[in-house]
Design a protein that fits this description.
mainly alpha
Length: 111
């Protein structure tokens, strides 16, 4: 696998899992509209008492990131410089919120 693929997927997995832990374990609220709607939907499912609300958001993050990785794979082959730059952007979009989540957890004493 291309190293950009691994970094991008890891970044979005970290964001999804840290968001799920924040919501399901630490009791924080999601402020962003789309993740909040996904988690509200998951909270209405019969799996909510067992899996919480964040699991569906993790799957959605990985699905979207995986789709983007697949779409960019050929582009990286054709133009490695621009392709790697796009992978870096995709990774940053996941790492930024993940770092924010982890920082908030540490500052609030949640971890």
């Amino acid at each position: 696998a291309h190293h950009g693929t691994v970094v991008a997927l890891f970044a979005h997995a970290l964001d999804g899992v840290s968001t799920a832990i924040g919501v399901d374990v630490l009791g924080t609220d999601e402020r962003t509209p789309i993740p909040r709607m996904i988690m509200e939907f998951a909270g209405a499912l019969p799996t909510a008492p067992y899996l919480g609300r964040g699991w569906l958001f993790v799957l959605a993050k990985l699905g979207v990131a995986g789709g983007i990785v697949v779409l960019l794979a050929d582009y990286v082959e054709e133009d490695p410089t621009e392709g790697n730059l796009l992978f870096a952007f995709v990774a940053a979009v996941g790492l930024g919120p993940a770092a924010n989540n982890l920082t908030l957890f540490l500052l609030s004493g949640g971890v």
